[in-house]
Amino acid sequence: MKQVNPLSVLPINKHPQTDLIAMQAILDLYPGATLLVNLKHNRIEMANTQTIEMTAFTRLEMNNLKLDHLIPELSKKYLHAQFEANADTRIIELGDLSINRHNAPTSEVFVTISLLDNEKNWGLLSLEPSQEHQQRSTEIQRTSLIWEELRALAVSPLAITPSEALQTALETASRLTDASLLAVYLAGEKNL
């Protein structure tokens, strides 16, 4: 089966100027800072508006900039080592790296690369401020724990005895609400 380069389906070179404008518009639709990178030459081909705002480089400065000039850790050698270590995946989280900004101090960003072709010549780099990434990861973990607790609460009535079911429900409710004390009123026929 022939592998198709995802970039080849775009009508590049038929109308070069129009094609570049269309590609820039597509890239600008990405919600976060994103770079289209020629990995073979370790060069930035295009950056979206969010990347321009993050780095304070102009589009003209950003286009054809060496990738390791913007993010010093992303040398060609480092990237190829990452590709070999993650040969079975097309999306690689490179972690927190320093990014150079135009006439400003460096900042930390969480970098993810999405490979666009099998030859690993083209990629999209997503750049998320490290602090925002950490907050988002923490929120995802918190939400996951809440869903686990809700699942435990939902299955608590399936316990062998009513006492065990009540104990599980109380323990789960305590973890969900962070309450140090929970009480259950057991109504009897005389109390109704």
What level of helicity do the residues show?
A: 40-55%
Uncertain stretches of 5 or more adjacent residues:
1-12
- What overall geometry do the principal axes of the alpha carbons give? elongated
Radius of gyration, in Å, reads 26 Å
Identify the CATH class of the largest domain: Alpha Beta
DSSP helical segment count: 7
Cα separation of the termini: 73 Å
Question: What does the model show?
Answer:
The protein has helices at residues 16-28, 49-55, 59-62, 67-70, 76-85, 130-155, 162-177, and strands at 33-38, 43-47, 91-101, 104-115, 122-129. The protein folds into two domains: 6-130, PAS domain (Beta-Lactamase, 2-Layer Sandwich); 136-191, no CATH class. The protein starts with 15 loop residues before the first helix and ends in a 15-residue tail after the last helix. Helix content is 42%, strand content 22%. A five-stranded antiparallel sheet has the order 2-1-5-4-3. Residues 1-12 have low confidence and may be disordered. The radius of gyration is 26 Å and the shape is elongated. With 192 residues, it is of the alpha+beta class. Helix 6 (130-155) packs antiparallel against helix 7.
